[in-house]
């Protein structure tokens, strides 16, 4: 919307608010009628084209009933990320490229209203006492909020959008994020109940790939997902239980951390446990579950390589309990079978960079064995097979003598 229409939007919006009967619930249809009438009155002195009228009507409605100027950006499927650095600075990411959009909030107060609208929808609280909050939108899009004065100039809002339709493995193949051979190999691993850990940097596609990977889970299994903010979109799972952590209230009470949810999930008769992301002590609980008969689990974590992910897992376990390092490494080596490294390349594409098998402990160190590795030869992306699986016991348990 142009600056002129944005400036005059408040006039139309205020006229509609003056006419609304706030003593009762006003239906959306009534508001649309009021907006149309006020725009007609406005256009008698300020002529607008039909397209401008429709844009003004939509913008006023979104400011009254939805997320104001954010609504249009959320509905644009090409946009994958929305970054708001204040009421007048809004940036988006399209096809991996950052650009500034010609939109702005009417004031800092309006931005604050939208932020409160977002957090209240998931029973979260953001204020001066709790100025940093992670939450989600109704469609699962991830939201991070930092209020002023922690964010020095203005309150900050970042939204990682999720596609309306989950990206499946077929779509990842079309995007060349993975090869058919690697996809078939991962299908075998999932069916054989290998414990798989996804590693990668920010915006490397970990959650998207995890969603796609779950389509290989047999539909007869019971799956429990555990997340800080619910955003997973599992494919083809009928018996699905979704658990979401809860932050403490203003009195510092009623918190339900991910660690408690992992422990609770073990009593819910899971066939598989999916932990959206391991950031701390819950890594210990995940490994303990993996080592006590709950195979076939999935989780993700932030690291720049498979080797780095092992180091981070050691650190996260030690955050929960002071254990001898060799004991931590033995727990990891027994509880994680496969690490998949994802990455975002300079051309903005997201790829599977490496698939490594955890061999075990050698001379006190966890040893990895690369099975597939992403290489670029002659400008083409390829996934080169380096080794075969060493530990094939699970394959034989599932497939018998016909194990791949």
How are the SSEs placed, and which strands pair?
Layout lengths: L2 H17 L8 H16 L6 H16 L4 H6 L3 E6 L5 E5 L2 E4 L7 H13 L11 E5 L5 E5 L9 E5 L8 H6 L5 H12 L4 E5 L5 H8 L8 E6 L11 E6 L13 H8 L6 E4 L6 H9 L7 E5 L3 H15 L4 H11 L2 E7 L5 E13 L2 E13 L2 E6 L7 H7 L5
Parallel strand pairs: 7-11, 7-12, 8-9, 8-10, 10-11
Antiparallel strand pairs: 1-2, 1-6, 2-3, 4-5, 5-6, 12-13, 13-14, 14-15
Helix pairs in contact: 1-2, 1-3, 2-3, 9-10, 10-12, 11-12
How would you characterize this protein structure?
The relative contact order is 0.08. The termini are far apart. The chain is α/β, with parallel strands linked by helices. It has 3 domains: 65 residues, no CATH class; 95 residues, Beta-Lactamase (2-Layer Sandwich), CATH 3.30.450.370; 234 residues, P-loop containing nucleotide triphosphate hydrolases (Rossmann fold), CATH 3.40.50. Helix 1 crosses helix 3, helix 10 crosses helix 12 and helix 11 packs across helix 12. The protein is built from 13 helices and 15 strands. The strands form 2 sheets. It has a 9-stranded mixed sheet, with helices on both faces. Strands 3-2-1-6-5-4 form a 6-stranded antiparallel sheet.
Key words describing this protein structure:
nine-stranded mixed β-sheet, Rossmann fold, elongated, 15 strands, six-stranded antiparallel β-sheet, 404 residues, alpha/beta
């Amino acid at each position: 919307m142009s600056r002129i229409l944005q400036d005059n939007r408040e006039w139309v919006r205020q006229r509609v608010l003056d006419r609304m009967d706030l003593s009762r619930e006003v239906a959306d249809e009534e508001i649309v009628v009021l907006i149309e009438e006020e725009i007609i009155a406005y256009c008698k002195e300020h002529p607008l084209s039909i397209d401008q009228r429709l844009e003004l009507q939509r913008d006023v409605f979104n400011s009254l009933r939805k997320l104001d100027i954010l609504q249009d950006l959320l509905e644009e499927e090409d946009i994958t990320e929305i970054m708001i650095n204040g009421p007048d600075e809004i940036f988006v990411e399209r096809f991996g490229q950052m650009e500034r959009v010609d939109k702005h909030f009417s004031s800092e107060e309006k931005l604050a209203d939208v932020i409160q609208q977002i957090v209240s929808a998931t029973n979260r609280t953001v204020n001066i006492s709790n100025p940093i909050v992670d939450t989600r939108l109704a469609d699962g899009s991830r939201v991070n909020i930092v209020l002023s004065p922690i964010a020095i100039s203005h309150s900050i809002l970042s939204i990682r959008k999720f596609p309306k339709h989950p990206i499946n493995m077929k779509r990842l193949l079309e995007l060349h994020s993975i090869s058919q051979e690697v996809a078939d190999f991962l299908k075998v691993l999932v069916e054989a109940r290998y414990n798989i850990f996804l590693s990668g940097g920010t915006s490397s596609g970990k959650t998207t790939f995890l969603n796609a990977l779950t389509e290989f889970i047999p539909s007869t299994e019971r799956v429990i997902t555990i997340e800080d903010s619910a955003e997973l979109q599992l494919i083809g799972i009928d018996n699905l239980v979704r658990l979401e952590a809860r932050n403490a209230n203003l009195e510092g009470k009623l918190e339900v951390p991910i660690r408690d949810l992992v422990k609770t999930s073990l009593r819910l008769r899971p066939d598989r446990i999916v932990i959206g992301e391991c950031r701390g002590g819950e890594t210990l609980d995940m490994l303990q579950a993996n080592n006590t008969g709950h195979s076939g689990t999935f989780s993700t974590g932030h690291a720049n390589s498979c080797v780095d992910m092992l180091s981070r897992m050691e650190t996260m376990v030690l955050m929960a309990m002071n254990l001898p390092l060799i004991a931590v490494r033995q727990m990891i080596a027994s509880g994680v079978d496969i690490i998949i490294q994802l990455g975002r390349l300079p051309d903005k594409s997201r790829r599977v960079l490496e698939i490594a098998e955890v061999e075990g402990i050698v001379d006190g160190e966890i040893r990895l064995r690369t099975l597939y590795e992403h290489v670029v030869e002659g400008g083409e992306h390829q996934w080169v097979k380096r080794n075969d699986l060493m530990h094939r016991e699970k394959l034989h348990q599932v497939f018998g003598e016909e194990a791949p």
